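Methods: example folding runs. The two proteins below were folded one after another, and each record is reproduced exactly as written to the output file, sequence line first and structure-token line second.
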Amino acid sequence: MSSPESSPPRAAGPRPAAVPSARPRRGIKAALFAPVLLALAGAGIVRAAIAVGAAFPPLAASDLTGGAVPATAGKVVLVDFWASWCAPCQASFPAHAKLYADYAARGLVVVAVSVDENPAAYAAFVQRFHPPFPALHDRAQQLVRQVSVPAMPTCYLLGRDGRVRYVHEGFHGADTERALRREIDLLLAEPR
């Protein structure tokens, strides 16, 4: 990717003479909007989301609180980013609990990561849902920024090598659960 700072230099030499414009206001508008367009383009370049194929940041190094970070080496891992104020997140927790119950013995690790700024809201959500998997708190929002999570909830399904294999933005009930089951089956069937 290139950015305005790393774009190739223009060829040296004399510039062509300016051509008078029949619409001087258009030039003014372009001059006014150019910095805005550059800023928007630059924002897209700076944001580096963790995408399919990328290595997921190590959970143990992410300053997560609220419990122990489970061992994930050599496991298929479902990392779910959620927030207490998110209605689809509330619907996803029972589905993730079912996935955990059905696949944990075969090597699936589920880790839910709250992005709540309010520790009390995080704690109340966990107490309400009693997940059978770790529901940790990214209190400094270090991991959510590093991953550049696009929406709540978003889950990342990692292969045994720690690389992102599937990303699910949002939770769409039975459709998302079916897709996750199909993908988990494929990942667990891969050779170690």
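Second run, written to the same file directly after the first:
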Amino acid sequence: MARTAARKPKSLSKPAGFAEEAQPFLHEDIMRGVPAKRVQELIDKGVLAEKTVYRVIPERTFKRRLANREALKISEGDAIARMVRITEEAEQIFGDKAFARDWLVLPNPVLKQRVPIELAETDAGTREVEGALMHFAYGDYL
């Protein structure tokens, strides 16, 4: 029997876009603890605003963790991941980064005058924001 060399599968290229630039967190990343430095990199790249991060992690706590090279708590990492995801979805749906950022921080009538990025602090709130974004994406303005 002749041996054949095992073929290495072709690597699939990842679709270009915001998610690839932001390097969203995986479940394993969140469970191990997202390094505060990684969140600071998202801030530095303009993916998240400092104010958004400080909604989830108090500024002093975040800066202390950054200085001590500590990781976030699971709940904090999860909330940051949700905010990255919501920001990405808004930018993709609206097609305009500035408009998406404004939409995320202003009271929205579809969301009962609540602020989308504030709702993204919880999973239930994130689902409401995603629902509003999907309505907009499909032309149903409620």
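Comment on the second run: The chain is about 60% helix and 0% strand.
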